[in-house]
């Protein structure tokens, strides 16, 4: 039977019609072989537009449909649904992209119209060869993996669990809370971050549906949406939390000393150290990397911590183990690093002890921090404090071109804390633009200015010493004069950077990175928490700089997106997969080596390639690799593609 | 009136966010009306710009801190050089520049000395010409070749290279000004002539590798002579390597405290901070201390960008004097540097501030040579 094709040309308002003569394209299409009807309409994707198509299918007995409109990424699902409603197989649709690939990029109406005609002719030529395909569904493992136990991961795990599904929360470190555990108060509401965190962590720990794996790292991920298999390497809890009374004798005995990253390097700790208070369990943990006994069996005369522990709570002999998890969805919440201020050497961080980062300030302000909450350096109260904005952000010299989205408000909050503790302190904030875009942010900025914080417009260019004072030099651009401000405390508003292990995380899951180095979402507007890998979602600062509000919002968005396949219990898999003509296949395996999805295997028995249609994405790499044309992708067979090309000549 | 739009276009000034990082870091902005940010703004505003009464444009030392720290990649220093160029083109050349520029064209050096005297610095050393075949070409620099105060530097380098058995030669009387300062004074026509002529000479002499005594020559060859076709390094890089390889060994001790002025063209502009310090620290007996403002936070001596021939609008405050005071603060007895301009400005400053007996300014070449 000859195919009976209908062609539908969309104006997309004036998006297409302004540049392409849609009437002429319709006239042209009507003359093409096998075309029974060709129409154009303002918005094909609208209900009346779809109605034109479905009506024609019924009235004229169409077998195939061509829609000339936008990218298939935009509306292919819409039109597939429409023709399915009218009784056609959804795969009997072909789209000609005359918007993104034609009207939007050309100015000459005559040439654009000619090109649109070519695109339509080509789509019609292919459409006649389209065959109906079966839509297939596979079952889903109704559990989710959340990678990263910071604020985003905690919230996402809780949402998954509250929806009634199992959540596995894997955290690399010894405790939950991530970056938030280091923070003192929120902005602009000045709540204690530890209160928020303790509450969240308690709900997590008490939840029957959540399995927390700390000291654990995802090593390998196989499978696909609905059916991921995950290997997790777990380091043993060498301190028994049930026995440990947090007396601290072990740490006193430990000979290893290193900068305490939790206190942002402001204090030191031992290889055995107490977990932060927000982690709820009052216990100690061992840093395997730092412990000389775990690493090299060196600690004389015997592991000292073990010897002094009155509760026999420490066991250094335990081995790492690998745990296998099966999950249907994965949420990546691996967080961000803070900008390393050594990248701005002119600001003197690392040279002067009273030049600190905003993260170090958070530790100083924390009652559980190294100074018990006293904001002071070398025991001296600051009298002249300078805040420097945008350190490492918006800056081509560091490569971080983006705004960090937090440091304006972090500095405002910290300036407020200084004024609260030391009302007589002179506090200056140097800025180039104050960006207070969040809810209540501008109001807080108004408040701190009233409290006496002096905002001076200009990026600080240099910090140096004069006598026993630190001098901050900038141009006050509103005064149009270079100025020097003395200070006994300088706080650098550092931004957020991608974590150094972002590449490993990306390659583990097959994710991509955006230009700023963070993990890339699949569309900035339409798919903000999705990735290019179905079933893998992003939450929190691994995707880009964020404050707590945005982090939690995105975590909840990622959780609800991940819940979709879990709730449905089934996922649709690609129908246009590859298939093998066993008569032609020589079993050379070239295609299997090319396949990025592991969808092809060489059968030991038949010595022919077998396709796993659930894994196949229909990309066609195998088809190009096959020397004997034995493997082909449905919807992209040589006959279909060649007739498309022939229509262009 | 000058065409500000053309300058906006030429130097990409629309990228500027007027943050003031340039002016805040400019070493001369506190003592001069020079304000790189405001200059950029005046170009962007496009309401006309008169060069007359903008003498501060000649205060810039082209240390380039403004451009290096700009978060948006704007090079205010290039705009200043461009404005100087318009000034030069208008024919109103500052009086003290006329003789050096003319001499650079006619005699190949801005010191207004005869071309045929260029090798006097090497009297009695029998340095061969690189055209006779040599692994390394040594570029002497006009200042080092003619000024008796710095002539000992290239002589010391000859000694050191011979001690390390490096096969080297010079261009002899064929050497002429590298054009670095000429370009920075805005005389782009003369600079281009020097560049093309030098590149011809370098090709004819078959130069593959070059070592310079001045960071200014190194910088222009490395970063501004497009398609130079040879590798170039500053002597501190070469010495640090020869010392590390054990090819230079010091037999004498130098029991003294030494600090170091980072030349802007070596440090800030080319990131060469460690090699000069490595050379100093390798000399037996030397106790090395850095000044507070060192490396990326170092301060210009005010000798660059043609300032050797221009006093500037404010000679009451001299950065070199401040540097001497800062060097003394470290307890150093020797203020080392690795650039003839730095050596001269700092030497003058030691005398001007009355510290001849407290602090000795030395080039690293002299120190290394004395310790051989």
Provide keyphrases for this structure.
heterodimer, A: alpha/beta, Rossmann fold, 32 strands, globular, B: 372 residues, 3 domains, 4-stranded parallel sheet, 8 strands
Could you explain how this protein is built, in words?
The complex is a heterodimer of chains A (649) and B (372). By secondary structure, chain A is of the alpha/beta class. Chain A has five domains: 5-127, 3-Layer(aba) Sandwich (Rossmann fold); 143-235 and 320-336 and 509-568, 3-Layer(bba) Sandwich (FAD/NAD(P)-binding domain); 249-308, no CATH class; 337-497, FAD/NAD(P)-binding domain (3-Layer(bba) Sandwich), CATH 3.50.50; 578-633, Alpha-Beta Plaits, CATH 3.30.70. In chain A, strands 8-7-6-16-27 form a five-stranded parallel sheet. A five-stranded parallel sheet of chain A has the order 18-25-19-20-21. Chain A is globular, with a radius of gyration of 31 Å. The two termini of chain A are 26 Å apart. With 372 residues, chain B is α/β, with parallel strands linked by helices. Chain B has three domains: 4-89, Alpha-helical ferredoxin (Fumarate Reductase Iron-sulfur Protein, Chain B, domain 2, Orthogonal Bundle), CATH 1.10.1060.10; 95-240, no CATH class; 249-371, Rossmann fold, CATH 3.40.50. Chain B is built from 16 helices and eight strands. In chain B, helix 11 links the parallel strand 3 and strand 4. In chain B, helix 1 packs across helix 3, helix 3 packs across helix 5 and helix 8 (152-163) crosses helix 16. The longest helix of chain B has 17 residues, at 188-204. Chains A and B meet through strand 22 and strand 23 of A and helix 2 and helix 4 of B.
């Amino acid at each position: 039977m000859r195919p009976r094709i209908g062609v539908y040309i969309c104006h997309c308002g004036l998006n297409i019609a302004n540049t392409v003569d849609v009437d002429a394209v319709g006239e042209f299409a009507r003359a093409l072989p096998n075309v029974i009807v060709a129409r154009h309409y303002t918005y094909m994707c609208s209900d009346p537009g779809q109605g034109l198509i479905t009506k024609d299918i019924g009235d004229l007995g169409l077998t195939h449909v061509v829609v000339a409109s936008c990218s298939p990424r935009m509306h292919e699902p819409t039109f597939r649904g429409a023709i399915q409603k009218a009784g056609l197989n959804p795969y009997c649709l072909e789209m000609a992209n005359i918007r993104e690939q034609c009207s939007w990029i050309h100015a000459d109406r005559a040439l654009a119209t000619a090109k649109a005609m070519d695109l339509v002719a080509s789509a019609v030529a292919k459409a006649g060869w389209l065959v109906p395909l079966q839509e297939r569904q596979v079952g889903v493992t109704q559990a989710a993996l959340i990678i990263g136990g910071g604020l985003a991961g905690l919230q996402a795990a809780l949402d998954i669990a509250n929806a009634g599904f199992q959540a596995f929360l894997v955290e690399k470190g010894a405790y939950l809370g991530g970056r938030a555990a280091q923070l003192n108060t929120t902005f602009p509401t000045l709540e204690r971050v530890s209160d928020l965190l303790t509450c969240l962590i308690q709900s997590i720990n008490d939840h029957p549906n959540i399995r927390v794996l700390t000291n654990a790292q995802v090593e390998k991920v196989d499978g696909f949406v609905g059916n991921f298999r995950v290997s997790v390497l777990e380091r043993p809890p060498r301190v028994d939390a049930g026995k440990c009374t947090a007396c601290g004798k072990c740490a006193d005995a430990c000979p290893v000393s290193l900068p305490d990253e939790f206190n942002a390097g402001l204090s030191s700790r031992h290889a055995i150290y107490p977990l932060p208070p927000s982690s709820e369990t009052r216990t100690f943990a061992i840093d395997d990397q730092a412990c000389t006994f775990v690493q090299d069996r060196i600690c004389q005369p015997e592991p000292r911590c073990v010897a002094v522990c009155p509760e026999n709570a420490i066991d250094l002999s335990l081995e790492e183990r690998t745990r296998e998890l099966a999950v249907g969805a994965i949420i990546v919440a691996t967080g961000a690093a803070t900008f390393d201020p050594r990248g701005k050497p002119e600001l003197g961080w690392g040279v002067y002890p009273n030049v600190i980062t905003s993260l170090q300030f958070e530790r100083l302000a924390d009652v559980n921090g190294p100074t018990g909450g006293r904001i002071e350096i070398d025991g001296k109260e600051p009298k002249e404090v300078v805040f420097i904005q945008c350190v490492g952000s918006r800056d081509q010299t560091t490569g971080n071109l983006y705004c960090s989205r937090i440091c304006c408000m972090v500095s405002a909050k910290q300036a407020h804390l200084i004024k609260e503790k030391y009302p007589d302190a002179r506090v200056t904030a140097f800025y180039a633009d104050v960006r207070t875009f969040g809810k209540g942010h501008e109001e807080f900025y108004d408040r701190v200015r009233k409290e006496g914080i002096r905002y001076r417009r200009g990026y600080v260019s240099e910090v140096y010493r004069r006598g026993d004072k630190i001098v901050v030099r900038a141009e006050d651009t509103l005064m149009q004069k270079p100025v020097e401000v003395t200070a006994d405390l300088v706080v650098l508003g550092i931004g957020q950077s991608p974590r150094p292990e972002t590449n490993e995380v990306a390659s583990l899951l097959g994710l991509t990175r955006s230009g700023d180095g963070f993990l890339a979402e699949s569309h900035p507007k339409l798919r903000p928490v999705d990735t290019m890998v179905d079933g893998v979602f992003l939450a929190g600062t691994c995707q880009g700089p964020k404050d707590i509000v945005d982090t939690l919002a995105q975590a909840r968005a990622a959780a609800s997106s991940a819940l979709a396949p879990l709730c449905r219990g089934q996922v649709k898999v690609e129908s246009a997969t590859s298939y093998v003509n066993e008569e032609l296949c020589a079993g050379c395996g070239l295609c299997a080596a090319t396949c990025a999805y592991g969808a092809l295997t060489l059968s030991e028995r038949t010595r022919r390639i077998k396709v796993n249609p659930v894994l196949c994405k229909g990309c066609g790499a195998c088809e190009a690799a096959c020397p004997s044309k034995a493997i082909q992708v449905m919807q992209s067979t040589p006959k279909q593609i060649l007739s498309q090309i022939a229509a262009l000549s | 009136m000058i065409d500000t739009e053309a300058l906006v276009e030429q130097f990409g000034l629309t990228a500027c966010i007027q943050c003031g990082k340039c002016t805040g870091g400019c070493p001369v902005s506190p003592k001069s009306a020079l304000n790189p940010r405001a200059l950029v703004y005046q170009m962007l505003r496009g309401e006309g710009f008169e060069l007359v009464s903008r003498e501060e444009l000649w205060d810039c030392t082209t240390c380039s801190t403004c451009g290096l720290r700009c978060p948006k990649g704007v090079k205010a220093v290039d705009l200043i050089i461009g404005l100087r160029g318009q000034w030069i083109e208008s024919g109103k050349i500052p009086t003290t520049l006329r003789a050096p520029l003319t001499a650079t064209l006619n005699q190949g050096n801005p010191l207004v000395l005869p071309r045929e005297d260029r090798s006097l610095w090497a009297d009695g050393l029998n340095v061969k010409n690189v055209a006779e075949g040599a692994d390394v070409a040594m570029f002497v620099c006009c200042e080092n070749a003619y000024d008796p105060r710095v002539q000992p530097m290239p002589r010391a380098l000859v000694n050191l290279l011979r001690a390390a058995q490096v096969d080297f030669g010079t261009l002899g009387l064929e050497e002429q000004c590298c054009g670095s300062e000429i370009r920075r004074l805005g005389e782009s026509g003369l600079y281009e002539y020097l560049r093309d002529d030098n590149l011809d000479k370098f090709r004819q002499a078959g130069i593959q590798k070059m070592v310079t005594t001045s960071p200014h020559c190194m910088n222009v060859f490395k970063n501004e002579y497009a398609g130079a076709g040879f590798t170039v390094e500053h002597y501190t890089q070469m010495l640090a390597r020869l010392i590390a390889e054990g090819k230079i060994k010091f037999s004498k001790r130098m029991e003294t405290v030494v600090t170091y002025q980072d030349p802007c063209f070596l440090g800030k502009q080319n990131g060469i901070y460690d090699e000069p310090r490595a050379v100093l620290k390798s000399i037996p007996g030397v106790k090395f201390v850095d000044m507070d403002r060192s490396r990326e936070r170092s301060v210009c001596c005010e000798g660059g960008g043609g300032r050797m021939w221009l006093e500037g609008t404010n000679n009451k405050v001299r950065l070199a004097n401040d540097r001497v005071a800062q060097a003394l603060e470290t307890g150093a007895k020797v203020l080392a540097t690795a650039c003839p301009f730095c050596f001269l400005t700092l030497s003058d400053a030691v005398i001007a501030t009355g510290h001849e007996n407290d602090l000795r300014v030395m080039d690293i070449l002299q120190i290394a040579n004395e310790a051989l």
